[in-house]
Amino acid sequence: MSTIFEDRHVIVTGGTGALGKAVVQLLLDKGARCSIPSHRDTISESINDLEQDRYIQTGVDLTSEESAQQFYAKAVSEQGPLWASIHTAGGFGTGPIGETDADAFNHQFRLNTLTCYNSCRAAVQQIRPSKYQGGRIVNIAARPALDPRKGSGMSAYTVSKAGVWALTQSLAEEVAGDDILVNAIAPSIFDTPQNRSSMPNADYDEWQKPEQVARHILHLASPVNEVIRGAVVPVFGAK
Fold this sequence. Notes:
This protein is an alpha/beta fold. The chain has helices spanning 18-29, 45-48, 65-79, 102-127, 143-146, 155-174, 193-198, 210-221; strands at 9-13, 33-37, 54-57, 82-87, 135-140, 180-187, 232-235.
């Protein structure tokens, strides 16, 4: 077993979701200690079974700056200095603009852009004083963020993920002097039970598996990545 993350504490927001669980499992397999904020008040048995080297806190609202700050501070007190923060928390929403009011737009902004911003801010504050003298941040953008025309019929979601793209590149420049490398990936559609249920006639073979995307996230979050920063990596698959 590779131990490239041995003695390294990594926070994974959205760690109870499909992509987040895949990321957490790979991190644990590679020796990391993980902390997971959960918006829900309870967690599923599949997450609860991950007892080794992980800390989970329920009832964390990452759209709240105070809640995000409190979670990161608590995670560091429980699991030690922070090496990396991976932000898979977010949500998807679709609908033409005529049917998407300002409340729906703000909901997408809060789920995707604001949670990422609050998590990045708390992560930088915790990574800077850590023993590692640097660290890694990985955000999750989306294919429409790189090509907004792909976001036809889902403008609110597209704008919210474009904000993650812009945040990634601006923050990468801001904290480069601290040796905090900030990057993002931009996936297409994940093969999850929820997506299959909502799109029953799709060709699932064209969809990416969470485990495939998780491996790319781990590379960007690992100490092996010594030079990549400010990248928003397209992870669209071969089709």
